[in-house]
Each structure stands twice: as C-alpha cells, then as structure tokens.
C-alpha cells in the first residue's frame, strides 16, 4: 500500500536530508458492507458479486463495514477470501468485540464516517482569517492594491506587498463544496469560507462581513463587507442580487463605498470582479 | 408548556421595560398566567414600572442562590391576579446570574404552570442580556426609528441566532418579532426619523406592532402602571394589537400614518 508514495518521492535531487517524508494522502476505497456474519453466506455472496462484476472491482482497496451486525465475523477467513478475489482489505469499520476481532486478524480500524458525502466546511475560527482578507480601512473611494500574499505568516504577507501580483501563490486546487449560509448575517457577524465559495441566502447587514477564498454569492441585499479570493485568487468574484456594500475586495484589492454607488448599480444585481489592479462592478442582466 | 419570551433591543432607553410590562400585562388580561422577570441585575426598573417596588422583599438573585423560594420572591400584580413579577436585585453583581441558575428558575416557573415567561433584558450584549435571551423561544426586538437603534437590533438578532439554546441545540430558531416604539409619523414624514418601510427593509423580520410616541407612556411609568392600562390612548390600543398579533390574529398596523391637523384642530390647538 505504501509503495506508491515511496517510489514517487525518490527524486535524487531532494534537498532534505531525510530518507523519507510524511505527507497526507486521501484514498479511494470500496466499502464492503456486511449484512450478516455467517461465513459461508458471506463467501458465497462475495464470489457471486465478483463473478457478476467481472474485473470491475479487481485490485481495489476495500474497507469492510461491519457496523451493522453484532454477531462475530470469522475475520481471518473473510480477509483471505477477499485477497483471493484480488481485493485489498485495508481496514474495518466496527466497534466493540467485532472491532477487536478484526484488529486481531490484521485489519486496522478506520473511520469512514456515514454515507459518502462531498466534503463540506464549517466556518473557520475568527483567528484563521487570512491577513490579506482583512484589509486596512481607507477613506478614499479608489481601488487600492494591498497585500495578497500567503496567509501563513504576517511577515510573508508583508513581503508579498513588494512583489508583482504574478508571484502570488496559486489558490488551493481542489475546492470542497461551497459553504451555504441559509440565514441573514447580522451586524457584527463574520463568516469565512476557507478554500471554497460562500453562498449566503438572505441579507448581509451593515457591519457584517463575508469572506471566502473563492467566490461570494449573496442572494439578498449585500450591505456589509464582502471579500472574495481572500488568499489571493484574483479570478474570484462577488455576485449579489442587491448591491449596497460598505466594502468589496477581491484578492486584497478593495474599494470602500462611502457614499453609495452610481444609481445604475446601487441596489441592483451585480458582479464584482478584478481586472488587473482595479475592481470592476458590472450590473447583472440588462 | 411555558413559552419563554425575551424583550430585548441592544440599545438602552428604547422601551424594553415599558414593553415588558405592557406585554406581560396584556397576556394576563387575556387570561394567560404570566410572569415577567427583570434581568437587569443592579439597575432594576421593572418593579417601578409595574408599581410594586415597595413590595420587593426577595429577588431573582436570591432565588438563584437558594436564599429564597420562588413563591417568596414572586410578587402578584396589583391589578391582574394571573400576572406575577420576579424583580431584579439592585445590590448584586450581575455575575450572580448563572446559566444553570437561570435555567432552574425557568424550569420551576414552567412547573408552576405559567403559560408565558417574559424576560426583560438589560441593554447591551453582556452577561445579563445573554442570559435573558439564551433560553428564549420568542424574541420581541424593540427598536426606535433611528439608525443606531436599528443597527443595535440587527446585532442582537445576530446574537439570538448564534448564541441561544435553540441555536446550540440545532432546534427551530427563536421566533423574532420586531416592535417599533416611539414612532412619530410626523417626524417620519419630515424625514427626521426612519420610516417603517426602511426599518423593515433593514431588519427583515416580522413586524408585530408600532407603538406611537406619546407622553402618556412617561405618565404611566411615573405612576407605576403599565401603559397598556391607560384608557382611550393610542399606546394602549397599539399594545393590545401587539398581544393580538402575538397570539395569532392578523391585524393591520395602526398609528403609522401622519394626518395633517385639520382646520378645527389648528384653531383650537390641543395634542
């Protein structure tokens, strides 16, 4: 199982002195859900399923889910049968005595959660908001470039200020599902969608802040502050059905709207995007 | 099942205590056994508005700390026999309110078959205000027609949706009702105050009533009579409407349009 990782890291020009590295990995695995414990019934069902499926499941990693049955399974026999069918059992989902028996047969306990779902995100804690998202207040109505650097450390963000925008690190590649907020955001509330888009269904009041590493969609009046591309994604945009913000920002380029927008845009559906170094606000539809 | 209603606003001086007194009296007038609790520990006012300040012996904090029983601390209203007041302490520190203590008192009141428990929240977003709203089922958010009051109400609505027991348990959210007080249609028409529509558009919650600005409120407070008892006044009628709407009736809003005084009124004056 671990061979892949090791082989992919054998580039000879590595600077680090270590012979190995630890990195995180996410596996795709088949879940084999057991409905009964009877060994013969399981072996028969397994043989039938593998015959029906042809080579479809061959050489797949397998997690055995025994969480639904209480009677003890004959784990050594089941593991052997799975291997014989060219399946690679990686772990077991079970608890209590069942779990202990599976571990004794060489299957580590794994946690795969409930039904397979797309990854979703919870609001990140306040202190995790990247510094680039929290732009300094400026009283001018002009768009001004600010730091759009990595969020890890404050000094890094400082350095990014002097660099060209092209050296801004790329946004995270694989985004989880968008964060959806299905309630009004009131004055003093702040929501940050880390690594993803933010969708708000309802009003974003004056004094509320919505921040996302991706795009921001507000289905309702956007009256507070909205900061998209908080970690420097210059392609992020802000969409709303009623634009009346205190501040909009994309990738750290922000504009304070002190005296309202021009009548053609004020309280209208609109898109805010970044074009070069300046923010563009366009009316949506007509 | 007792229903816990918090009367809150964020900003001070907008009419929370006046509303708590009239709202609880109004529910009692309709035959519901009601108790109103003053959460403003250290600055108690409710007993004055209810006209029972001389009868306060034990208070809310005494009950929480086990120094008195609920029956000893509850004061029966002088006019309505199914209305009770649980006064605040004037001398204690507000840290005396603990979540466990408040919860126990609320549970005990529910066991005493109170139908409505009205919690008069102090201003601000400190412990007292958080305790008053934490256990609420419904919230009356009292707002005046001016921007700072509306902004503070917005803030309070955010806190209600995030920091209440219902929010923490993932139950249905607190039912929020907007109550506009000190509404002066003439000053709205003159552009000195925010209009009903402006406020509804900003806060976007159900409007339960509009209480007109009136000197009668001040007089009622000074006499220790909840404003809802004042005969033939706009204020009392408006509060009665609030009770009806809270109990499920659909009524049009009153006292929201400015009528230019007619010739007769201009000639003979009067208010």
Strand content of chain A: 15-25%
> How would you write the strand order of the largest sheet of chain B?
3-4-2-5-1-6-7-8
The averaged pLDDT of chain B comes out at 92
- H-E order of chain B: EHEHHHEEHEHEHHEHHEHHH
Of all chain pairs, the largest interface belongs to: A-B, 14 and 11 residues
Structural class of chain B: alpha/beta
Termini Cα gap of chain A: 57 Å
Low-confidence stretches of chain A: 1-12, 114-120, 135-168
- Percent of residues of chain B in helical segments? 40-55%
The 3D shape of chain B can be described as globular
Shape of chain A: elongated
Give the H and E element order of chain A.
Answer: HEHEHEHHEEEEEEEEEEE
Structural account:
- The complex is a heterodimer of chains A (286) and B (271).
- Chain A contains five helices and 14 strands.
- By secondary structure, chain A is of the alpha/beta class.
- In chain A, the strands form three sheets. A six-stranded mixed sheet of chain A has the order 4-6-8-10-13-14, with no helix packed on it. Chain A has a five-stranded mixed sheet with strand order 5-7-9-11-12, with no helix packed on it. A three-stranded parallel sheet of chain A has the order 1-2-3.
- In chain A, helix 2 packs parallel to helix 3.
- Chain A is elongated.
- Chain B has 271 residues and is an alpha/beta fold.
- Chain B has an eight-stranded mixed sheet with strand order 3-4-2-5-1-6-7-8, sandwiched between helices.
- Chain B contains 13 helices and eight strands.
- The longest helix of chain B has 17 residues.
- Helix content of chain B is 41%, strand content 16%.
- Chains A and B meet through loops of A and helix 7 of B.
């Amino acid at each position: 199982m671990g061979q892949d990782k090791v082989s992919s890291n054998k580039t000879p020009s590595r600077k680090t002195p270590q012979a190995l590295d630890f990195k995180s990995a996410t596996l795709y695995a088949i879940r084999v859900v057991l409905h009964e414990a009877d060994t013969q019934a399981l072996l028969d069902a397994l043989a039938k399923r593998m015959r029906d499926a042809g080579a479809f499941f061959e050489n797949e990693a397998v997690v055995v889910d025994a969480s639904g049955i209480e009677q003890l399974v004959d784990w050594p026999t089941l593991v052997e049968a799975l291997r014989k069918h060219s399946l690679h059992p990686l772990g077991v989902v079970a608890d209590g005595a069942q779990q202990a028996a599976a571990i004794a047969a060489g299957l580590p306990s794994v946690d795969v959660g409930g039904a397979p779902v797309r990854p979703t995100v919870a609001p990140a804690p306040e202190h995790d908001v990247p510094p680039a998202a929290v732009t300094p207040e400026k009283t001018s109505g002009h768009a001004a470039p600010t730091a759009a650097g990595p969020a890890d450390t404050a000094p890094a963000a400082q350095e990014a200020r002097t660099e060209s925008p092209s050296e801004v690190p790329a946004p995270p590649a694989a985004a989880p599902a968008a964060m959806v907020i299905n309630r009004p955001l009131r004055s003093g509330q702040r929501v940050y969608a880390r690594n993803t888009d933010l969708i708000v269904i309802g009003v974003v009041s004056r004094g509320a802040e919505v921040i996302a590493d991706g795009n921001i969609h507000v289905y309702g009046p956007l009256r507070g502050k909205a900061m998209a591309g908080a970690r420097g994604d210059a392609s992020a945009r802000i969409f709303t059905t009623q634009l009346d913000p205190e501040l909009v920002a994309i990738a750290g380029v922000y504009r304070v709207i002190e005296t309202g927008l021009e009548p053609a845009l004020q309280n209208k559906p609109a898109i805010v995007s970044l074009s070069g170094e300046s923010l563009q606000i366009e009316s949506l539809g007509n | 099942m007792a229903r816990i209603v918090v009367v809150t606003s964020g900003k001070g001086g907008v009419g929370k205590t006046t509303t708590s007194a009239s709202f609880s009296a109004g529910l009692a007038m309709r035959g519901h056994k009601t108790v109103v609790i003053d959460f403003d520990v250290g600055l108690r006012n409710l007993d004055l508005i209810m006209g029972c300040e001389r009868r306060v012996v034990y208070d809310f904090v005494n009950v929480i700390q086990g120094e008195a029983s609920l029956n000893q601390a509850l004061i029966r209203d002088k006019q309505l026999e199914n209305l009770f007041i649980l006064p605040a302490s004037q001398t204690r520190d507000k840290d005396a309110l603990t979540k466990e203590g408040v919860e126990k008192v609320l549970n005990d009141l529910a066991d005493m078959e109170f139908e409505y428990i009205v919690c008069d929240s102090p201003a601000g977003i400190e412990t007292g205000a958080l305790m008053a709203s934490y256990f609420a089922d419904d919230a009356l958010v009292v707002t005046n027609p001016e921007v700072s009051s509306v902004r503070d109400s917005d803030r309070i609505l955010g806190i209600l949706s995030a920091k209440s027991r219902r929010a923490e348990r993932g139950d249905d959210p607190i039912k929020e009702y907007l109550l506009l007080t000190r509404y002066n249609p003439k000053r709205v028409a003159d552009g000195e105050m925010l209009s009903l529509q402006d406020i509804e558009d900003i806060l976007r919650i159900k409007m339960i009533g509009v209480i007109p600005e009136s000197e009668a409120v001040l007089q009622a407070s000074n006499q220790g009579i909840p404003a809802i008892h004042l005969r033939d006044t706009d204020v009392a009628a408006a509060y009665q409407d609030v009770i009806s709407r809270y109990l499920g009736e659909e009524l049009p809003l009153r006292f929201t349009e400015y009528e230019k005084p007619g010739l007769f009124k201009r000639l003979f004056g009067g208010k």
